[in-house]
Amino acid sequence: MGSLTVLFSILGGNLIFSFVLSLVVYIRSQKYYKPCIKRDKDNNPIDLHKIYDPFHPHDEVCFITLWIGAFFCGFIKAISSLFIVIFVNWHIRIIEKCYKDCDTNPEHRKKMKNAISCWSHMFLFMNGIRIKHKYPNCEDTYKKYLGEDYDLKDDRYSLLISNHIGFFEIVLCMALYAPGFMAKSTVENFWFVGPIASGLKSLFVNRQSEEEKKKIFDLLLQRQKAFYEQTFLAPLVLFPEGTCSCGRNILRFKKGSFYSLLPVKPQIVSVDQTKSFQLSVGASNVVLAYAKNLCHFVNTLYVAQLPTIRPTEFMYENYKNLGKEKWEIYMNVVRKIYSEVGGLVECDMGLRDLNRYIKAMRTGFYDPNENMDFESLKNKSEDNSSSSEVLEIKTEKLETLDEKIDGKKEEEKEEKEEKEEKIDVKENENDGINNINDENKKEIEEKLLDK
């Protein structure tokens, strides 16, 4: 009887846990799957999901499938992931205490890499993530953008770059390279995640401080040179997009990864777009995406490790139209290679557009002036006219301000003149009084002398 009660209590607790988890995931996910129709300035209906398609998830959410998956594997995944993260923290701290030169000694670096890789593979396995490698034929694409004599065998690089679709490609990079990441300064203080990130020798950046933003390029350049020259053995991974997409598009890149003009090694991560559940995050947050994964059994993450890309004179001469400066040409060429080799659609959206999309869904308020200028090609003339009107209004305001300032200056001058006149009158009166006093003094002195 005692064993049966324990068994039924475990099953009951698991039933309640799975029901609550699947219900929360289902309710929180509905805003991304229901139609989101808003009105623009001309009162025309606009579907925000279509406008922001690079961030809109393309899978499906069913409460029954979520509940079944959460009942059979949700609790196991959550508990095993927690224990793995705890053991990773302990293991990294022990290795750091035993081998303090893991970043410069190849043997000690190998031990750290093996430990992180082992725990990362275990984390992916316990969460039902299968890794499948792809080997796309990219020789023609590389020669197209980098020249016919480009050497694909030279695998020296200063930085690892990858497209960003969610959370699990970070663990995938840890399993393959055991690298550091460029993250916000607040990540360093997170429970469990902070010690792991610092143990991986990540770069923590305070984006709110302008001084820290200026130091980003210097720190990144030093880190790239050190790894390229093998004086520092821990590689660094950057996501040039700066935010997560749905997995179908490649967003616009930021210049941080390409400003140094040093070689980079690209990695393309993708998911099966035909499945009902996909690992891409898009507009949903990382916690919701991980909770959704707890409610499913198995999923696949595809990865393609491309040859190193180095800037060449052929690239600078033949693709001048892609940018004004060398780093800009380099950045856009890498983006073209991502698009052609990975089958991704280029998109000029970024983090700001994602924030506008999320804000429009949360608040239910859509302002076309605040959000993405999705009709810029159609309404360039309207935008120019509106900008000119704004300039005229600003100039009129400036003129009225100048007139007010001039009027105030004239009033101040008049007040100063009146004060000066009053001061002169008082001085004259004082002089007259002094003269009268002098004459009285003389008369009194003459009388005294006569006496």
| Assembly state | single chain
**DSSP strand count:** 11
* Major β-sheet profile: 7 strands, mixed
As a percent range, the share of strand residues is: 5-15%
What brief labels describe this structure?
451 residues; alpha/beta; seven-stranded mixed sheet
SSE layout and pairings?
Blueprint: H1 2-33, E1 37-39, E2 45-47, H2 48-51, H3 63-98, H4 106-126, E3 129-134, H5 139-146, E4 159-162, H6 168-176, E5 180-184, H7 193-199, E6 203-205, H8 210-228, E7 236-238, E8 249-250, E9 264-271, H9 286-294, E10 299-305, H10 313-318, H11 326-342, E11 345-346, H12 351-363, H13 380-450
Helix pairs in contact: 1-3, 3-4, 3-7, 3-9, 4-6
Structure, described:
This protein is α/β, with parallel strands linked by helices. It has one domain. Helix content is 56%, strand content 10%. The chain contains 13 helices and eleven strands. It has a seven-stranded mixed sheet, with helices on both faces. A two-stranded antiparallel ribbon has the order 1-2. The longest helix is centred in the last third of the chain and has 71 residues. The protein is globular. About 8% of the residues have low confidence.
